[in-house]
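haha ok so turns out i had the wrong file open the whole time. this is the CORRECT one, sorry everyone. sequence first:
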Amino acid sequence: MFKSFLFHRWTKTVLRITNLIFGVIFLFLLGWKFADYNKTAKLDVSFLPLIFFLILAYFYYLFTEWLIKKITTYQLDQNQFFQVLQEKKLVVEGQEYQVEKIAHLQVRFHSRIVNFQGILIIPQEDDYLKLNFLANSSLDYYKQQLFSYLQGISWQVQGKKQLSWVRICFHLALLTFFFGYLFTIAPKIIQEAARRHQQQGQKEPSGEPSGEDGGGMDWEGKDKVAHYLHRLNNEPFPPQAKKNIKAKISEYKKAYFQEKISLEEQLREIFSLPWWQTTTENQDLAVAKKELDREHFGLEEVKQRILNYLAGKKRAGEKQVQILCLVGPAGTGKTSLAKSIAKAMGRKYVKISVGGVSDEGQIRGHRRTYIGSMPGEIIKGMKEAGVKNPVFLIDEVDKINTIMSFHGNPASALLEILDPEQNKNFKDNYLEIPYDLSQVFFICTANWIQNIPGPLLDRMDVIELPPYTTLDKVKAAKTHLIPSILENYKLTNDQLTFTDEAIEEIVKFYVFTGGMRQTIKLFNSIVCAFVYKQETENLKSEVIDLKKTRQYLGSSVISEDSDDYYQPGIVKGLAVSEAGGSVLRIEASCFPVKGKEGKLIEPTGNLGKIMGESVKKTYYYLLNNYQKFGLTEEIIKGNDIFLDFPEGAVPKDGPSAGIAITTAILSSLTGKVFPSNYAMTGEITSKGKVLEIGGLKEKLTAAYEDKLIDTVFIPRGNERHLEEIPTEIKRKLKIIPVDNFADVWKEIKTNIGCNILNA
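then structure:
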């Protein structure tokens, strides 16, 4: 069917008409878009579209003729071609065509093939059909018969037109004219039209700008340069900023096409920033203290340090520029503290998060040379604040990427921002002009201070927020949390009441984090369940006790401490983590060996490097001092020692379990039970000295919450911290400071249990 179409006399005409239709549609759409742009840009270049469309039409014509020639070229096989040469006829799909002559025959020789190309002239009823053809023949066949065929086809070959060079010269002249006009005359027309348009805009009265974009005017239909200059001359920009912005406007005047669009977006961002706008700061410390107390329970030391900072800033003014860093577990109120500081100072509040950021451009901005470039998060935050002295919270600084890559190092970008000596001239890559950040009150937050890069940490004043203890959570639930939740759900204490036992049950056995978020979720779930019963069962009121708590929340997440400590080698240590303090169970076992000296077996329990070193230190301390504790050389050297720290899924590290590990090994070697009402914490040296530890409040709180513990050993160096411990904890626990492990052994040896082995 397709071959028959090729031999139809109207084939090329149909293809040309079809291409003409598509060409007209294409040029019409292009002209419409060009006219639309011309209308928006207000350029008087009416002659330019005509020349531009003629160029396109010319190239479209050349492309159409080339395409038609490719489509209508018929491939002859070897037999068909030599039948044309010998018999002057062509047979296609059973139909015979008489060939009158061959026009423009071209013969090309390759390695083993001869290529023939030309036009077959085939007579029709009242016209001629010109068929482009392409044929190939093997060189072997040529040697035998081709030469004789070619000698007899003088009747067939029609020479090329002698004036073909004239057509070539015509096309070259036409192209030279088109491109000469396009690259010389057209830019001058556009430049002149833009100059006239600018002069017309300057003659119009400017008036008072109105609209959005920082008090700017309507961007459509008014001269942008006049708008920029109007704002620059009538608004109190800083002198250096005004100078830099004027340079940008001059660059904008000289720019063309895409560069002008890019500069326009840049100027729009520059003028949308707060260059002089500020908020009046509240310096009443009593109001600040009231705001902090209203929003946060406890955290007295943290709130006092914040008030101290505000008092110093009130006295020193802009000379005191500090960067605060709030460090603590998730849910301890770092973000809400920053919001409260902003409220207390009467400043705007802006927050960005840099957790997981690996591209420096997200902090410092992308250069305009990139597609889709935009300012960095700092400039975006300042634009959102609308003033140049907000409280700016940078969240999760400990989770920012610190590895240098082809995207840069975002942690290094923060060094300039958080340095008071450098942020006066902070330069965003997109704006390309300095911006003053010296009046911004930066506050950073982090979960782990160890993960903050050293140079960054050196620029900040760190305030640590300890995890909430169970006592803190219970008090916060009673005084702040439950009333707030009831108010949110429009309930009263008469409708829904929590007993003290239920609150303690929820906090102690259903919450396993040091923050308040999980506590809030649990109380919210109970209140929502009660509201559902009100809506569906018409329930008027309810008292949440222990039974109702387990009914709403299911079985407890944290199990009570077991009473299986009445075995040799089991000791209670004290630990602290993000979730707060906890009792650390330590189990030591000894295995007699024969014919060789005993050793310390690799401990288990997901221990960190520091804790592993502490285990080795305690073992070698006992190996050198076993006689002081009533052990013989046969016992200490005739047993392998193995230590296990249960709950292997929980990572454990730190040196503060040193004296507890030593006691567990002694209990195992002597076969005597360590009293389960004792707990201890303290780092031990190779000479037996007990060193100071951290997290004393959290650890003593964990001991207080344990039903069995009533006596706790702590290092003598921590005795000064007992003033910070709540009275109810000190009332229940007997706290014994010690200098050396010998003091611990002296205290407990009179209370040590019976020898299980001899029982």
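The chain is about 45% helix and 15% strand.
again sry for the mixup
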